[in-house]
Design goal:
By secondary structure, the protein is of the alpha+beta class. Helix content is 12%, strand content 27%.
Length: 376
C-alpha cells in the first residue's frame, strides 16, 4: 500500500545475469515506480557474484570493419537449458539493424546467419535431420526485457546424457560472430550468459561461460545482476573483512548509464579461507554460513533499518522528508569514505570509488577513426 507512511526497507537478495542491464526491465521499472510513489521506502539489491564468471562480453563494431567474435562454452552435463543474450543499442534505426548480421556456428559444425526478425533452429550436425533440433536462435526487434531494444536470444536445451538420447542439445564451443555493414554507424553489442548454477540446495558448477576468440572481449565490468540496475534501488557489493578491497567475485560496474556501481559495499565474509559470514541457523541454538553479495545486501539492509529508525523528530534531521533522493543522500553520506588499504570496521558498509575499474573501455561511448561514434 503506497499510502502507508511506515518506514520500510526491502532486501532483494536475488538477481539474474540475463537482461539488458539498463534498468528498463519490467521488474526494475516497477521497483523504481514504487519507490517514486511511496514515501519512507528503501529497496536494497545484491550487486551480483559474477565478476569472475565470464558471463559478459562486449563487441565494438566499427563501420564496415572486420567481424568480431567470441566463444560460448556449454558443458556436456547441463541438466537445465542454457541461454545467451546479445543486446543491441536502444536508438538503432531499422536500417542500422538491417546492417547487422550474427553468424552462429554450433559445436557440430552447423552454421546459420541471422538478421533482424529471423528465427533459426540448430542441431548437433552440419545437416540436421527431422527431430534433431535442440537449440533455437531468435533475433527480435523489441525484446520484452527492455524498452525498444533489439536482442538475439540463443537458447540451448539440456546437454546431459540420456539413454534414449532424445533432444540432447549440442555441447562444446559455440562460435558467435557479429558483422556490422553500416557505412557510418559504430555499434556496441553486449552479450550476457544467464547463470544457472544453484546458489542453494544441491550445488552444481556453472554450466556455460564466455571465452575470447580472436580479441579480448570478455569483461569483468558491467557484470551487475538484475534488478540491481534499477535507478532507485541501492545496489550492494561485497567485501571481505580481512581483505582491503572488494571480494574477488563481487560484480563491478559501471551501470549502463556510466554511473557508479555498486553504490556501496558491505561485509560478506572473512577472507579466502572463510568467505562467508556466520549467521543464525534455522533451529534454536544453531548457526549457519551465508556469503556473496546476497549476504552483503542483508547486512546493509539491517544497517539501513537501524539508521532510519534512529531518525526521529528529535534527531538532527528534524522533520526530514523520507523520499528516495533524500534517503540516498543522507544514508550514503553517513557511510565513511575509505581508501584502499584501510580496513573497514565491522559492520559498517562503505563506498570505495577506487574499487571501480578504470579506462576508456568502460567510460561510455567511444570515438573511432573518422569521427564515427559508438552507440551503446
Amino acid at each position: 500500500d503506497i499510502t502507508v507512511n511506515r518506514r520500510l526497507v526491502v532486501n532483494l537478495s536475488y538477481g539474474t545475469m540475463g537482461g539488458a542491464h539498463d534498468g528498463q526491465s519490467p521488474l526494475e521499472m516497477a521497483l523504481d515506480e514504487l519507490v517514486e510513489k511511496r514515501m519512507n521506502l528503501a529497496i536494497v539489491a545484491a550487486a551480483g557474484n559474477s565478476r569472475l564468471s565470464q558471463c559478459h562480453a562486449r563487441l565494438t563494431l566499427r563501420p564496415q570493419s572486420r567481424p568480431q567474435s567470441f566463444i560460448w562454452q556449454v558443458s556436456p552435463d547441463a541438466d537445465v537449458p542454457s541461454s545467451l543474450e546479445l543486446w543491441f543499442p536502444a536508438n538503432l534505426s531499422d536500417t542500422d539493424l538491417a546492417n547487422l548480421t550474427v553468424n552462429i556456428v554450433a559445436p557440430g559444425g552447423q552454421s546459420v546467419d541471422l538478421t533482424i526478425g529471423n528465427i533459426e533452429l540448430l542441431a548437433d550436425r552440419p545437416k540436421p535431420e527431422p527431430g534433431d533440433v535442440a537449440a533455437v536462435a531468435v533475433f527480435t526487434r523489441n525484446a520484452v526485457q527492455s524498452q525498444g531494444r533489439a536482442m538475439l536470444l540463443l537458447f540451448c536445451g539440456k546437454t546431459i546424457f540420456r539413454e534414449d538420447n532424445f533432444g540432447r542439445a549440442p555441447y562444446g564451443q559455440w562460435r558467435i560472430e557479429v558483422v556490422n555493414r553500416s557505412p557510418d554507424k559504430c555499434v556496441e553489442v553486449n552479450a550476457y550468459v544467464e547463470r544457472n548454477d544453484s546458489a542453494f540446495a544441491r550445488a552444481r558448477r556453472q554450466q556455460s561461460f564466455l571465452m575470447n576468440d580472436q580479441e579480448a572481449v570478455v569483461q569483468e565490468c558491467e557484470t551487475g545482476a538484475n534488478p540491481s540496475s534499477a535507478s532507485k534501488v541501492f545496489d550492494v557489493g561485497a567485501y571481505w573483512l580481512s581483505y582491503a578491497g572488494s571480494a574477488p567475485f563481487s560484480s563491478l560496474g559501471p551501470s549502463e548509464d556510466s554511473q557508479l556501481f555498486p553504490e556501496v559495499y558491505a561485509p560478506s565474509g572473512y577472507g579466502s579461507a572463510m568467505p562467508k559470514l556466520r549467521v543464525a541457523g534455522l533451529t534454536h541454538g544453531t548457526t549457519s554460513q551465508l556469503g556473496g553479495t546476497s549476504a552483503a545486501a542483508a547486512v546493509f539492509s539491517r544497517w539501513a533499518v537501524n539508521w532510519l529508525a534512529s531518525q526521529t523528530p528529535d534527531s538532527n534531521l528534524g522533520n526530514f522528508e523520507f523520499t528516495y533522493s533524500n534517503i540516498k543522500m543522507e544514508l550514503l553520506s553517513a557511510v565513511a569514505l575509505r581508501p584502499i588499504g584501510e580496513k573497514p570496521p565491522l559492520p559498517a558498509p562503505y563506498i570505495d570509488p577506487e574499487l571501480q575499474p578504470k579506462g576508456s573501455s568502460i567510460s561510455g561511448p567511444q570515438s573511432g577513426a573518422g569521427g564515427d561514434q559508438c552507440v551503446r
